[in-house]
Amino acid sequence: MRSIRVELGERSYPIHIGSGLLAEIGERCAEAGFPVRSPLLIVSDSEVAPRYLPALEAALRDYGYTVVHHIIAAGEASKSLAVYEEVMTTAIQAGLDRRSAVLALGGGVVGDLAGFVAATYMRGIGFLQIPTTILAHDSSVGGKVAVNHPLAKNMIGAFYQPSMVLYDLDTLASLPARQVSSGLAEVVKHGLILDKDFAYWCREHAAELLALQPEALGYALERGCAIKAQVVSTDEREQGLRAILNLGHTIGHAIEAVGGYGVFLHGEAIAIGMAGSALLAVKLGRDKSIYDETVSMLTSLGLPVTLPAEYSEDELMEAMMHDKKFKEGRMTFIVPDDIGTVSIVDDVQASLVREVIAQLKKEGSPW
Amino acid sequence: MRSIRVELGERSYPIHIGSGLLAEIGERCAEAGFPVRSPLLIVSDSEVAPRYLPALEAALRDYGYTVVHHIIAAGEASKSLAVYEEVMTTAIQAGLDRRSAVLALGGGVVGDLAGFVAATYMRGIGFLQIPTTILAHDSSVGGKVAVNHPLAKNMIGAFYQPSMVLYDLDTLASLPARQVSSGLAEVVKHGLILDKDFAYWCREHAAELLALQPEALGYALERGCAIKAQVVSTDEREQGLRAILNLGHTIGHAIEAVGGYGVFLHGEAIAIGMAGSALLAVKLGRDKSIYDETVSMLTSLGLPVTLPAEYSEDELMEAMMHDKKFKEGRMTFIVPDDIGTVSIVDDVQASLVREVIAQLKKEGSPW
Ligand SMILES: NC(=O)c1ccc[n+]([C@@H]2O[C@H](COP(=O)([O-])OP(=O)(O)OC[C@H]3O[C@@H](n4cnc5c(N)ncnc54)[C@H](O)[C@@H]3O)[C@@H](O)[C@H]2O)c1
Ligand SMILES: NC(=O)c1ccc[n+]([C@@H]2O[C@H](COP(=O)([O-])OP(=O)(O)OC[C@H]3O[C@@H](n4cnc5c(N)ncnc54)[C@H](O)[C@@H]3O)[C@@H](O)[C@H]2O)c1
Ligand SMILES: [Zn+2]
Ligand SMILES: [Zn+2]
User: Fold this and answer.
1) How far is A275 from chain B (nearest CA, A)?
2) Of A126, A36, A117, A119, which Cα lies nearest the Cα of A84?
3) Which of A100, B268, B273, B345 is the most exposed place for a label (fewest CB within 10 A)?
């Protein structure tokens, strides 16, 4: 088992990564400080629950816990205030008290929703993340929890740290291949922003990662989580540095918004976005190799790096202008200076971004 | 103008109390750190907005702020997730950004709802309280924000401190007399738990307080806020000491739940609850004068101290058992040791509480 600690003063917590961890859930909940007399609520989704919920509940009950569960429909649409209220109803009816905890068993959707429930039930109770996607190595670390508003994604939420993250690699075996690549996009992103060696390591071990080979996967998730944890420790509430985690996300979010959620998976959209950021870097005078290397890393992981022709430049630009990352109307981008280093560039001209979007539509090298 | 500071480390904030403060709102928002380029959202209700919103908006616009407002129907029913979502929609449509703030202009309902919006819009933006009821001297200090779930009051919320509380005494002039007495119940509660002299001072100056005489009122709100602030500073997240603020609330909440919200106002219900706590104290061996003095203080402020005969003991007991203040099934009460001092008593027998409830129905002295 690999363990990392997210350093956040009195809100610090451990991340455990390894095989067979679900069986230890009782001990882990006790270690996290949840008393056996207070009921636990597991939130999971319709894809994950049939596979892993029975064993998890059995292990908790064996340990002496009272457990209830709430299963949401798989997919982004469940990250809504309506579903949030339903989970709250389950929590109240089950008699969760102030020492109870919510356990998120699933991907980022389950984690974000369950985390917002934990943050706001009786003004905050215990919270434990059990991520079952690769992408959730990102969403389960850092304490951002949220639901969507019909007008904007992740608009309603809080900063709320879990007491622990328990990453059982065995649960990843059932993950569809496209979800694997999508999750690896955020893994390699962590290399691209802060760790050159790790970014190259990802490309070298791409085949093992795509095959979910435990040794490579365990290392990749450990490094990914560790880099994210390091950034979050420095800037818990996203006042500055934490913005670098948004590499590729401004364009990526616009692609998701314009294409409709689910056309591109999140990791696929930000892979195109990271290719776009690399293009922007070159336009701003950085070395052309940044673009070539970025694209080669992403394609080695089975990720897209070009934009289908039907995406309208006007609509993408419009979507970006509404993105919450633009304080007071200026356009801010995370721009690579090299593989493994980025800058926050504050006043990127909209015309340059439009050029990047247009070039992202060209197959092959855009030069 | 009187000013108090709530000491909470980097979340510390000032409370300003005085006449004519609404006119200074622009300067105050700047002092609170809200940039003029980010839109402000004022939340108010249908009773308060017609009286004070136009002047407030005008003062903010004069200062250079962009202002939008959202007016809710007056009353507890607006403290719901449905109304919360509507306010969120207004905030998004108005383009509130991460440096924007929500201003709560109203009583505790507006403050609790608007505070929960501020706490969770984009994971937390600025928040300023402009209380317009006496009761809100209590709700605007301490950072508890919440909405109700159909199954339980204040069940969904957060701890979220405002940047400032601006208490303009002039707005209290339009407050209905019953609301004045109800608010004074929480004022005298602050004396009963921690300040004997202040509790007696309230009885002595009851007539001036009921007449909203500015000098007496200003002092009473200052002392009330200061005592609340002192407790909150020691125990921001209600781990221990803060429980003493619940004097009278266990019985009071049960009365509100059984009678239906709005039959008794909150302060009226907790006045009966405080009489009940004093009765309990005497049953547990404390001096009988505690009950007599408590009742005399409450009646001097126009508050009820007995329970109408139609309230069922069974239903009240049942409601108390469901109260969130009972960890793991035991009954906890805040019991006065004297006027101005209380203890947290952990294992009060249910039969004793039932006796208290029965005696609260007797008119005049229960002995
Ligand atoms: N909080 C954050 O910091 C943060 C960061 C990144 C992304 N996110 C959020 O995370 C969400 C995306 O996360 P995601 O990609 O994990 O999405 P997801 O939770 O929707 O999971 C993707 C799909 O895989 C299925 N699935 C999950 N685990 C499985 C398993 N082990 N076997 C088989 N199927 C499985 C799910 O049912 C779902 O259909 C988005 O809502 C995004 O906003 C949050
Ligand atoms: N957050 C906390 O710590 C805390 C503490 C105590 C109470 N509360 C909450 O506060 C709420 C009760 O507060 P409240 O008593 O202020 O209720 P309220 O906000 O409903 O106000 C009472 C009534 O007075 C009207 N009103 C308000 N100001 C007025 C004015 N200046 N002139 C004329 N009418 C006016 C309102 O429209 C309403 O009809 C409850 O929801 C309770 O849960 C919260
Ligand atoms: Zn992402
Ligand atoms: Zn109260």
Assistant:
1) 27
2) A117
3) B345
Closest B-chain CA to A99: B327
**Which of the residues in chain A have pLDDT under 50?**
328
C-beta separation of B301 from B206 below 8 A: yes
d(CA A154, CA B114): 19
**Chain CA centroid to CA B213, Å:** 21
Which of B127, B179, B180, B217 should be mutated for ligand 2, with most atoms under 8 A from CB? Answer: B179
CA distances from A218 to A14, A231, B68 (A): 15, 20, 50
Q: How far is A321 from chain B (nearest CA, A)?
A: 11
**CA A35 to CA B21: how far, in whole Å?**
48
pLDDT tens per residue, chain B (367 residues)?
Answer: 999 999 998 899 999 999 999 999 999 999 999 999 999 999 999 999 999 999 999 999 999 999 999 999 999 999 999 999 999 999 999 999 999 999 999 999 999 999 999 999 999 999 999 999 999 999 999 999 999 999 888 999 999 999 999 999 999 999 999 999 999 999 999 999 999 999 999 999 999 999 999 999 999 999 999 999 999 998 888 777 889 999 999 999 999 989 886 789 999 999 999 999 999 999 999 999 999 999 999 999 999 999 999 999 999 998 888 765 455 456 889 999 999 999 999 889 888 999 999 999 986 665 6
Partner-chain contact A85 B149, CB within 8 Å: yes
Give a three-class secondary structure readout of A199-240: HHHHHHCHHHHHCCCHHHHHHHHHHHHHHHHHHHHHCCCCCC
| CB pair distance less than 8 Å for B85 and A149 | yes
Q: Got the DSSP string for B318-339?
A: HHHHTSTT-GGG---EEEEEET
Predicted TM-score (pTM) of this structure: 0.94
B160 within 8 A of B124, measured Cβ to Cβ:
yes
For residues B25 and B237, give the distance between their C-alpha atoms in angstroms, rounded to a whole number.
Answer: 29
The answer to whether the beta carbons of residues B342 and B334 sit under 8 Å apart is yes
Q: Does residue A246 carry a catalytic annotation?
A: yes
**Is A186 considered catalytic here?**
yes
Question: In the numeric block, which tokens belong to residue A332?
Answer: 């801010």
Distance of CA A37 to the CA centre of its chain: 32
Tokens 């009489």 belong to residue? B275
- Domains of chain B by start residue, with CATH: 2-173 (3.40.50.1970), 177-360 (1.20.1090.10)
pLDDT at residue B363, as a whole number? 63
Evaluate whether A126 touches A58 at the Cβ level (below 8 Å): no
Residue B152, chain A, CB below 8 Å: the answer is: yes
> Which of B81, B83, B156, B324 is the mutation pick for testing A, counting most A CBs within 10 A?
B156
d(C-alpha A70, C-alpha A89), whole Å: 10
User: What is d(CA B189, CA B187) in angstroms, rounded to the nearest whole number?
Assistant: 5
Question: Which ipTM score applies to this complex?
Answer: 0.91
> What pLDDT, on a 0 to 100 scale, did the predictor assign at position A364?
61
Distance CA B367, CA B356 (A): 11
- Look at residues B47, B169, B185 and name the one whose alpha carbon lies nearest to residue B109: B47
Q: Which residues pair with B146 in a beta bridge?
A: B157
What is the reported pLDDT for B241?
85
